[in-house]
Amino acid sequence: MLFACFRQQRNAILDSTPNIGVESKCVSGLHVVETPALKISKSYGQKAIDTIRSMSILSSDFKVEREQEYLYVPLIHEPTASELGDLRANLPKFEISRHEFSRYVEPTPSLISLLGEKLPPHVLASLPNAIDFIGDIAVVEIAPELEPYKLTIGDAVLQAYKKVKTVLGKWGAVSGVYRLRPLEVIGGERKTATIHKEFGCVFYADLAKVYFSPRLSYEHRRVASLVGSSEKVVDMFAGVGPFSILIAKRHRDVRVCAIDLNPDAADFIRKNALANRVEGQVKALLGDARQIVHERLKGIADRVIMNLPETAIQYVDVACEAVKSDGGIIHYYEFSNPPEPREAATRRLSDAVKQAGRSVEKVSLARIVRGIAPFTYHVAVDVHIK
What is the domain extent for residue 62? Predict the structure, then answer.
């Protein structure tokens, strides 16, 4: 009864949330996605593909499609002003539009279907609903009752997902100032380091040393798409740099200060900036965000990212200090609870901004990113402050 009530309440919250972007599971059949594309005469098709590939904005998720005398070339994102300039310098007449690309998606087996005959029925109920894929590593939540069967679970994942080289079991929640959790190799190669690809960027990460979540990919893209020309961005809790790197790669005239308290994370930010050729735009800063902003980044930011949902509320005054005196935008994340998680998060943020001596001019977005536990939601709030 309690679970049924929770499910009903959860569905009501999600149904009332526009554009929540929660990760979807793959189903077999034809999968159609509308994405940015370059439309050009087929006689210039190969030149267009070569040009777009050299600019690192060619999407590998879809194939080039032909429609009468034109080709539609899939793009990772809508070209920025500088990228449009490069395209115009190299290609004849073309259009940037949105096109529906299709692909066949193989059925993705669930852990229950993979292990239905290998585990006792009472244990199957504890299997997680999802697996995190980070590069060639699969990360699986292992509840205490699953511990005796962890190697069986690891073998099943390796058999089902041929691109996976290592399966890690994770226990418990993220904890500590570095936001880490216990991990153990339960299948495949004995490693925790990998290279993850996302929206045309590559990210080196060692999951035993740094925090990284592929479930925030939508947020990385969403925030990057909002950044304007020549902005200065402060990423207060940057991790290995998924927000910072993507922003810099999409906007060549933007500068990002990426802060993290974890020395390993700061090292990975520098490595990832080099790997994505944005080392001149992304500056990795090691230390506590409060101290660094107060000493070095006061009043410089057009935009501040606060992706530390456990304790971000304690740093709102720091974000306000970083924002320019004439105003700017804060992307704030927190864990919030029903019955109105978005409204509660927005209210707490607005109150904290006021206590910092500034005010919220506009709330441009409040959305549920994902559910993380019964009665707990990861919420994103974007505000313009003055």
Answer: 31-105
User: pLDDT tens, 364-382?
Assistant: 999 998 887 778 899 999 9
* Beta-sheet strands, E only, within the chain: 29-41, 65-67, 70-74, 94-105, 132-134, 137-141, 166-170, 183-188, 193-198, 201-206, 232-235, 255-260, 282-286, 303-306, 328-336, 360-373, 376-385
356/268 same-domain check = yes
Q: With respect to residue 153, please indicate whether it lies within any of the assigned structural domains.
A: yes
How far CA 185 is from CA of 150, 189, 367, 382, in Å, comes to: 9, 8, 35, 38
117 pLDDT exceeds 90? no
Nearest-angstrom CA–CA distance, 200 and 357: 40
Q: Is 225 helix (H, G, I), strand (E, B) or coil?
A: helix
Q: Are residues 181 and 223 in the same domain?
A: no
Q: What's the pTM value of the predicted model, to 2 decimals?
A: 0.75
